[in-house]
Design brief:
Largest sheet: 8 strands, mixed
Structural class: alpha+beta
Distance between the termini: 21 Å
Radius of gyration: 28 Å
Low-confidence stretches: none
Bound molecules: zinc ion
Number of strands: 31
Length: 877
């Protein structure tokens, strides 16, 4: 560990900065091992800070300090104090010019924070606290400054980029060149970016609604130049959408995107110069799957939308991260929903939330969307802050309606433009614009955990009155034992016995938003002729669990009649969970497993329902993943979950073999590739049919997979066939496909990552020995986060069966990797460790083995504070 125990930072200790930086003038002389950074900072005392002469505190990590001068006078070491992570300088003047020269080593920077090299290209990642690895600076988001950046580099790095607009360029006598960039908008240091390399670019333009022309550029290595079209299209759609839906126009003359291979996150919204993980920007039909196309559209949108929700209005401190992330994830989700299938987008987002965010809420790192404390802020870039944060914003949208929400967001942007603000400021803007009181709603920002709604109902035939009683509760977490009731918008509809929606008010509305605010509350509906069937939490109107005792028949009825598409799917999930529970029970008791004929019939009807969107059919046929089933369990029995799910899938595949063949043949349409919603849905259902057919391991089915593998016209179909061969083919089929695929695509980084992931995620091929062999393959690189996510992440997060082997070898392996990675890249190490931190939810032996692996990490010597925080919280009682 760095210290005996790393320091904890608390929200309640926030103080305004003592000093402000009006302008930041940077010059970089790039050298792989010794880059010189010269900074000139115009600093003044903050009039809002407390009286007195506080020391000027600058953050700085891994920097070689060369010189400091104030107003042109060099300081001697006696004039300042070097701290373990920065500098402290006493300055008597109220304003002054601070000049610092320091050196950094981008080549040896494997943490991928600050300035580093990726395949010979310089790039930066400064959020959250990476700028302090570049130079000494008050590295906090409430210090906003106007940046000017000059980059000096050898001529073999012809592209030199930074934030804002280019204002100067030229050659230096020693044969180097320089470019100067000026960003007219004040910004925090975390939005700073620099890129230098031998890059190509594709160009386009966008004319804003007020008629300004903006230059758009996407930069990448020459070999990838043909893979930028989809990202460019997505960018233009996003710019248009933000004008239409939020009235937000882009503000600079140029918007640049750069693709890099080594990147800790998906992408970063640096002002005017977005830096992307190449996996989140590069795509062509031959090399990218449908889901990659969709992910790119949504991430390009997300980063672009940050220009307003994040950059123009930014966060006061990192506890407010959800202010920009929750809001922006909500914005990108609506963008994707408007461009594609709204119901499918909702199903995908809710599946992620329920499977992974609910697990986070129930695990050792549970925290509210606005955390109260952290040791390492990088650990709080979580599904809770992002996805649940987006659900909280969505609930405000539901409560205020689209027009009210727009009024609120307009006021928020107008009132806080150019400022660093808090989640509270966002809510106040929503309240002020709509004259509503969201006092109780604010608890979503301060209370952690997933609320549960227990719903019971009753129908009085003599009066025609139907009543709901709803009780809300929220499981305690160590820091929060007693929680107060949340304000929950619960969208409901009622179905009559023909499956039609019943009018719920005089205006004839067929669904209502019930506002739950009490721990127990009753709602009444009058004038009904029969007991209705409730459709609860339509479109997943709140991030909660709803418990209502539906019978098998009622779920089957909702599955085929609910007018809310999301709830039709949700009924199928409830049904599947019920079936899995029964199968798990039978397995544990050593009984013969059996799937009920009613259930098989229901799946048959869904599969053959041509009226239903194929995307929805696909989502229903998939069955909940092992991780989803685990999340639903009180105590996880991994072996029983694997057995139950495998049995259910096998039973369906055997019972529906003719129907699966029929639908496969019907959907196997030859056509030019397009990533539109209809084609994606059809490909998805076709490939799920293929997978089910291959589960039978019949030669016919595997031949079909082989044919598709050989003749596919796009990566979606080819990858699906590869997956089928890897998971269900015999060694000969599988090995051959694995080799052929690699030989054909080994030059392509994104396809290679997919190839690695498919093997690592396979229950059959991804055994621990195979995983270890994959890590020796030339395609693997421990210093590259995408490869780590593909192989180690794929194994620990998506290979449920092999990871949970009874001998505990999967956990030991992950512990080894965490220990190795922590020396290279603490951010990635602390992500990789997560699956073994949830040991308390497992039954007996597995829990002990997981805990033992975790203890080994804990006792392995010096840990980064990233890993220390996660591991120590999970070992606490
Ligand atoms: Zn973001």
């Amino acid at each position: 560990m760095q210290d005996a125990q790393p320091k904890t930072t608390y929200l309640k200790d926030y103080r305004v900065p003592d000093y402000l930086v009006d302008s930041t003038d940077l010059c970089f002389e790039l050298e792989p091992k010794a880059t010189l950074v010269k900074s000139r900072l115009k600093i003044r005392r903050n009039p809002e800070a407390e009286e007195g002469i506080p020391p000027l505190l600058l953050d700085g990590i891994d920097l070689e300090l060369l010189s400091i001068a104030i107003d042109g006078t060099m300081l001697s070491p006696a004039d300042y104090q070097e701290l373990p992570q920065g500098l402290s300088i006493i300055v008597e003047k109220p304003d002054f010019l601070l000049e610092i020269h320091n050196r950094i080593n981008p080549e040896d920077n494997t943490s991928l924070e600050g300035l580093y090299l990726s395949n010979g290209m310089y790039c930066t990642q400064c959020e959250a606290e990476g700028f302090r690895k570049i130079t000494f600076y008050p590295d906090r988001p409430d210090v906003m400054s106007k940046f000017t950046t000059t980059i000096v580099a050898p001529i073999d790095h012809p592209v030199l980029l930074s934030n804002g607009n280019e204002v100067d360029r030229g050659y230096i006598e020693d044969g180097r060149q320089f470019v100067t960039w000026e960003d007219p908008f004040a910004k925090p240091a975390y939005l700073f970016a620099l890129v230098a390399g031998d890059l190509q670019h594709v160009d386009d333009t966008f004319t804003t609604s007020s008629g300004r022309e903006v230059k758009l550029q996407i930069f990448t290595e020459a070999k990838n130049i043909g893979k930028c079209d989809h990202a460019m299209r997505s960018l233009k759609s996003a710019m248009h959408w933000d004008e239409e839906v939020y009235g937000r126009e882009y503000d600079l003359d140029i918007f640049m995107v750069v693709a890099v291979d080594h990147f800790n996150m998906g992408a970063m919204e640096n002002k005017g110069l977005n830096i992307f993980n190449s996996a989140c920007v590069l795509a062509s039909p031959e090399t990218a799957t449908d889901s990659a196309f969709q992910r790119i559209e949504s991430i390009v949108g997300h980063e672009y939308f940050h220009n307003w929700s994040g950059n123009r209005v930014t966060c006061r401190d990192w506890f407010q991260l959800s202010l920009k992330e929750g809001f922006t994830v909500f914005r990108d989700a609506e963008f994707s929903a408007d461009l594609n299938s709204r119901a499918v987008k909702r199903i995908e987002d809710v599946t992620l939330l329920r499977t992974n965010q609910f697990a986070e809420d129930a695990g050792p790192m549970a925290h509210p969307i606005r955390p109260d404390s952290y040791m390492e802020i990088s650990n709080f870039y979580t599904l809770t802050v992002y996805e649940k944060g987006a659900e909280v914003v969505r609930m405000i949208h539901t409560l205020l309606g689209a027009d009210g929400f727009r009024k609120g967001s307009d006021l928020y942007f107008e009132r806080h433009d150019g400022c660093a603000v808090t989640c509270e400021d966002f809510i106040v803007a929503m309240e002020d614009a709509n004259q509503v009181d969201l006092t109780q709603f604010r608890r979503w920002y301060s209370q952690a955990g997933t609320p549960v709604l227990d719903v019971t109902d009753q129908f009085d035939e003599s009066t025609g009155v139907y009543r709901f009683v709803i009780r809300q509760s929220c499981p305690p977490i160590p820091e929060q034992k007693d929680k107060l009731p949340f304000h929950i918008p619960l969208t409901v509809g009622l179905l009559d016995s023909t499956g039609s929606d019943i009018a719920l008010d005089k205006a004839g509305s067929t669904q209502l938003v019930l506002e739950i605010t009490e721990s127990e509350q009753m709602f009444e509906f009058n004038g009904l002729n029969e007991k209705p069937l409730p459709s609860l939490l339509r479109s997943f109107s709140a991030p909660v669990k709803v418990r209502y005792d539906y019978s098998l028949e009622q779920l089957l009825f909702l599955m085929s009649h609910d007018s809310d598409t999301f709830n039709r799917w949700d009924a199928s999930q409830r049904l599947a969970f019920k079936a899995m529970n029964l199968l798990q029970g039978a397995y544990q008791e050593g009984l013969t497993l059996k799937l009920s004929p009613e259930l098989i019939l229901a799946y048959r009807n869904i599969l053959l329902d041509k009226e239903l969107d194929p995307a929805l059919v696909a989502e229903i046929m998939l069955l909940p993943s092992e991780h989803s089933i685990a999340e639903e369990s009180v105590s996880i029995d991994a072996e029983a979950i694997v057995a139950a799910r495998a049995f259910a899938r096998k039973s369906l595949s055997c019972a529906l073999i003719d129907e699966l063949k029929e639908r496969y043949a019907e959907l196997d349409i030859e056509r030019p590739y397009s990533p539109n919603a209809k084609d994606i849905a059809e490909r998805r259902l076709k490939n799920i049919c293929l997978e089910y057919l291959c589960i039978t391991e019949s030669a016919d089915a595997l031949d079909l997979a082989q044919r598709q593998f050989d003749s596919a016209g796009n990566m979606t179909d080819r990858a699906a066939a590869l997956s089928a061969l890897i998971n269900y083919g015999n060694d000969q089929y599988a090995e051959q496909a694995i080799h052929q695929f690699y030989d054909r695509w080994k030059e392509d980084t994104q396809v290679t990552e997919l190839w690695l992931a498919q093997q690592a995620c396979s229950a059959k091929r991804g055994t621990l020995n195979n995983i270890k062999a994959l890590m020796q393959h030339p395609a693997f690189e421990l210093k590259n986060p995408n490869k780590v996510r593909a192989v180690i992440g794929g194994f620990a997060n998506r290979n449920f069966q092999q990871f949970h082997k009874n001998d505990g070898s999967g956990f030991e392996f992950v512990a080894d990797q965490v220990i190795a990675l922590d020396k290279l890249n603490p951010q990635i190490a602390s992500r990789v460790v997560i699956p073994i931190t949830r040991w308390k939810k497992y039954q007996g032996d597995l829990a002990d083995k997981m805990k033992a692996a975790l203890l080994r990490v804990s006792n392995s010597g010096e840990l980064s504070k990233d890993v220390y925080e996660v591991v120590s919280k999970s070992l606490m009682n």
